[in-house]
Amino acid sequence: MNSRYELVVYWSQDDDCFVVEVPELPGCMSDGKTYQEAVSNVEIVIAEWIETAKTLARAIPEPKGKLMYA
Asked: Under DSSP, is residue 33 helix (H, G, I), strand (E, B) or coil?
């Protein structure tokens, strides 16, 4: 999967891993020991989030692109 949702990636000192959040999909996040692993993991979670939303007949937000500014 090559998602078009914005990903927010950061290092969590407390968890000793990279965390990825998907702001447009409430509660959608993942982690990994490396940046690449975290992003790969969140792609799986995004697909699962969308599949669950479809099963529950919930709205699936369209990707909006850049939402945050550094």
From this structure: coil
Distance between CA atoms of residues 54 and 45, nearest Å? 14
Sign of CA dihedral 19, 20, 21, 25: negative
Q: What is the pLDDT of residue 1?
A: 61
Q: Tell me the pTM.
A: 0.88
Residue 41 is encoded by which pair of tokens?
Answer: 């993991």
User: How many beta carbons lie within 10 A of that of residue 16, not counting itself?
Assistant: 9
Cα 59 from Cα 53, distance rounded (Å): 7
For residues 48 and 52, give the distance between their C-alpha atoms in angstroms, rounded to a whole number: 6
